[in-house]
Design goal:
The structure holds 2 protein chains of 2 kinds. By secondary structure, chain A is of the alpha+beta class. Chain A has helices at about 10-20, 35-50, 60-70, 80-85, 160-170, 180-190, 200-210, 240-245, 250-260, 275-285, 295-305, 310-325, and strands spanning about 25-35, 55-60, 75, 105-115, 145, 175, 195-200, 215, 220-230, 290. In chain A, strands 2, 3, 4, 7, 8, 9 and 10 form a 7-stranded mixed sheet that branches. In chain A, strands 5-6 form a two-stranded parallel sheet. Chain B is α+β, with helices and mostly antiparallel strands. Chain B has helices at about 1-25, 30-40, and one strand at about 45-50. Residues about 15-25 of chain B have low confidence and may be disordered. Classes of the chains: A alpha+beta, B alpha+beta. β2 of chain A pairs parallel with β1 of chain B, so a sheet runs across the interface.
Chain lengths: ~325, ~50
């Protein structure tokens, strides 16, 4: 089964499991939001205007969460390690990285690696490092995203001007500008050789359909994005929301997320994709890089996504990637 | 005079200590408190986004 958006079955499964675990009879209702950006924009508007939160808990990526954290829009669970379900890997810092200050708790990982058409290009002929995409032999043979969350992680590896230089070399190769999902569609049709920064679920969907797709790692930028649950400040059902966040870090919840919609949390080695992704990293010697890795990466992300200077840099980054300028 | 100052100092320290412990307790809810609170709430609204 391919990874899919959250479903009623997922929520009903989690609801039943939580109620059983804590001896409750909670009714869990959910909204399937269109995008993280819209959801967090609504959340921030409610928070800033003092409007009663219209939902208690939400999932999001670090780039979505940081503004809310800075504005005090989330409630922390300082003693979450004492309260998490038995079997939660408490020593794994990726469950709630220190930069998140005990306000966000991982439910899934989403590696953004390089997907390629195995019939059009061999693994040996693929770019190994970011700068290799500038090789003229790849001209017109790959697509890139217009958004910069995954590409921007290059700032954790190189200085700002070097990153622009690298991506200008990409832009000169005239990549197609589209979502990674659309890029992989074109790749399967034979129009593209490869799509960098594609999520694992797009890869699995195609692989399970029998399409000729392979996945590998860009050695100097194995972008790793995680999805976290947060509890909103002044949530009408704050206690239930905290139990939801805590329970979803645990092994039984992880089993349900994977069973129902194939969202995987690689802090649990038994999850089906964990071994494959670990091997990909080990084979290439690459290290997964995430915005939540350290205070330095967190500071970089805050600069890139919440400062005026960062927004201006994003435009330069997009211009470099898309137009080679 | 010295005794009064000493008592005053002890009073301040005791007040600070008990105030501090109340703060710690209120910030760190126990599982039992969360479960009882959730039981009263009876519901939960979550927002989940389509693609990870």
């Amino acid at each position: 089964m391919s990874r899919s958006p959250p479903t009623p079955e997922l929520v009903r499964g989690l609801e039943a499991a939580i109620n059983k675990h804590y001896g409750l009879n909670l009714k869990v209702s959910y909204t399937a939001a269109e995008s993280y950006a819209k959801t967090f924009s609504k959340l921030m508007t409610e928070h800033k205007t003092g409007t009663k939160p219209t939902f208690d808990a939400v999932v999001g990526q670090a780039v979505n969460i940081i503004s809310g954290m800075d504005a005090g829009a989330f409630e922390s669970i300082q003693n979450w390690k004492e309260l998490a379900p038995k079997g939660t890997p408490l020593n794994d810092q990726t469950i709630s990285p220190p930069v998140l200050k005990n306000t966000a708790f991982k439910v899934a990982d989403s590696p953004h690696f390089l997907v390629y058409n195995t019939k059009l290009i061999s693994k040996a002929d693929l770019p190994k490092k970011l700068a290799d995409f500038g090789n003229p032999k790849y001209k017109g043979k790959f697509s890139v995203l217009s958004a910069v969350a995954a590409q921007g992680l290059a700032l954790s590896m190189y200085d700002k001007e070097k990153v622009l230089d690298i991506y200008r070399s990409w832009g000169k190769n005239e990549p197609k500008i589209m979502s990674f999902s659309q890029g992989v569609d074109r790749l399967v049709l034979g129009e593209l050789w490869m799509v960098p920064f594609t999520t694992d679920y797009v890869y699995y969907r195609r692989k399970e359909a029998g399409d000729p797709v392979g996945m590998t790692v860009i050695q100097d930028l194995a972008s790793w994005i995680s999805i976290y649950t947060t509890v909103r400040m002044n949530a009408p059902n704050a206690n239930a929301a905290k139990l939801w966040a805590l329970y979803n870090t645990g092994p039984e919840a992880q089993r349900i997320w994977e069973k129902e919609i194939k969202w995987m949390n690689f802090s649990y080695p038994q999850q089906s994709g964990a071994t494959e992704f670990k091997k990909l990293l080990d084979d290439t010697g690459a290290k997964a890089v995430s915005w939540t890795d350290s205070e330095e990466t967190w500071k970089l992300m805050r600069w890139l996504f919440t400062s005026e200077e960062g927004e201006a840099y994003q435009k330069r980054l997009q211009s470099a990637i898309q137009e080679g300028r | 005079m010295t005794r009064i100052r000493l008592l005053l100092l002890v009073g301040i320290i005791v007040s600070l200590l008990t105030g501090g412990s109340r703060l710690a307790v209120s910030e760190a809810a126990s599982l039992k408190e969360l479960v009882e609170g959730a039981r009263k709430e009876g519901q939960l609204n979550v927002t989940l986004t389509a693609n990870a």
